[in-house]
Amino acid sequence: MFLRASGITVAGLALSAALPSFAGEVEVLHWWTSGGEARSVSELKKTMLQKGDTWKDYAIAGGGGDNAMTALKTRVVSGKAPTAAQIKGPQIQEWGKEGTLANINAVAEAGNWDKVLPPVVADIMKYKGNYVAVPVNIHRVNWLWINPEALKRAGATVPVTMDDFFAAADKLKAAGIQPLAHGGQPWQDATLFESIALGVGGADFYRKAFAQLDPVALAGPTMVRVFEAMQRVKGYIDKGAAGRDWNLATAMVINGKAGMQFTGDWAKGEFTAANKQPGKDYLCVAAPGTGGSFTYNIDSLAMFVQKDKAAQTSQAHLAEAVMSPAFQEAFSLSKGSIPARVDVPMTKFDDCARKSAADLQTSLKANALLPSFAHKMAMSSAAEGAVTDVISQFMNSNMTPQKAAERIAKAARTK
Ligand code: GAL
Fold it and tell me: Which end of the chain is more exposed for a tag (fewer CB within 10 A), N or C?
């Protein structure tokens, strides 16, 4: 069972956007604790303070959010749910089933959310047709971040295909530069893996394996080739990677210690916080072999049922604030993502964000818009945890690609 919901009230408390506006407290659970992420959260805090509410930060460090999800379960079970928590993808349905989430249709209707959100986003925010969560932004996961100076020193070129990638990595290695910046944490291993899987197997394979959990795709020869590629990729990661946080890996690219990093565009928040310019100090390119595809990771705040009126009012303020065009713009400008709303102009955004917005549209038309499973967008929490375990065991042992494919197929069946 996802959560033992002893003593938790049921969902269905409708929030009214028209409630009188008086100050209350909002407590928001999130895992945005790196330099770039913390700057982005301060935008939310600022917006709430402007509305007259008080902000209680409930930050649980740990990229990818596994620690935060564990803390949240303990909190909710003990009857002290926060106002909202960073919960994503299918996990919103899991919490909805537990009866813990608040119905925020009144705010959504007043703000025309159905019109301003793409259906792929709106659907994830609803439980049984009712809005229970607010989208904060859209991150793209299948990026490769490059230090152009390091590439130049090594005489390497920007990789477009997986073969190009291995050629560039070899040149960096020969020049004494660490080819790949990585952090050996399970969610980072899974983030790297899903981009390699997309690059090796393509969009249809990715969808079958990780969104549809097709046993044939999961255990078949393409998956074996994906793990073979991962085995090669492992050779470009330094020994110090064990346990390294993602932002420290990004720092290696920022300061030229490493040439490249596979990760989502939250990395751009770190480059931005370090005053680095895209196209000059760093490059953002689609992960090798994944040019026409887009793996999405939509950050969202799910709203928990609140008993008293003041708490409900502040919660409505929070939902309104997160969806406001001004906040959507400001948050993504510092976070590295793009707004979830379709009507926020991209004029203030840099080339990486514009590329993300354009590629999202192209991939949608080409049926290559895909949920990131490493970022909790594709599978149940149980399946995602089991699949991630196999990947990280593969990264930390001599498991053969054949064995890894067998094991990942089994793990994906975890209920
Ligand atoms: C993701 C989250 C991003 C970013 C990243 C690293 O799961 O969606 O917003 O925070 O983790 O912490």
Answer: C
